[in-house]
Structures are given as C-alpha cells and as structure tokens.
Amino acid sequence: MVEIVHQPIKQLIVLEVIPYDTPRGMAKAIGVIMRAGQPAILNWAEGIVFIYNPLPPTTERLMEKYLEGTAFCASVVFSSLPEHSPKITIEDPGLGTVEIPILDVTQNRIMRDLAIWLKTFREAKGR
Length: 127
Description:
The protein has helices spanning 23-35, 60-67, 109-125; strands at residues 11-14, 17-19, 42-45, 48-55, 70-80, 87-92, 96-104. By secondary structure, it is an alpha/beta fold.
C-alpha cells in the first residue's frame, strides 16, 4: 500500500491586506474584476467575508518555501459580515444586477485561521 502523508501548511504570508468598511463596498470593487471576465466567489468564516489571491509557487525559491510549509498570498480583500449569507447582490454599471456567491469555508483550517487573523488585523487598525 502507498504511504499517504499529510503535511499541512505551517505558515501563510499575506503580502497585501485591503479592508473594506462594508461587504457591499467590497463586492462593488470586485465587480471591476468581474467586468474583466474573471469569476469571483467570496469566502466567509468567523464573521469575515474575503477574497484572496494566492501566489502560486512558480519559482524555485517559492517552491522550496512551499515544500517547507510556507504559502504566500499576494493579497486579501475583506470586510466584516457577522452572519454567513449565500450571496451578496450588487448593481454594477457594466454588468447590471450581479449576485456574487459566498462560500462558508469554516471547515477549512487555513481559511478559518486567515479569517481570525483578518479580524484581529481589523481590530488592531481600528477599522
């Protein structure tokens, strides 16, 4: 039988954090991405709604760090959202009425820990 080894990420380095005062304001900003043809799905955990942009290990150095247990996130955009909702609806000038799905990622340890960290980040910045 093949040996299966679980080697979870030990560290997530976030390079840029972009807080929004409201989930709707954040969703409107994400509408720009959607107008460019990129799909958007928001994540929710621990009272935080967010979207992240992972930095894939495309260089030798990043791959080394990844195999050592460090992942990188180029940016995270987030806002407070106390209760999970399955979607947020916005009016976008280029797209009309848009529904952006919100996934509950509470079961994902890394996403839950990131949400907790974002909540602490927000409190430390007074936003």
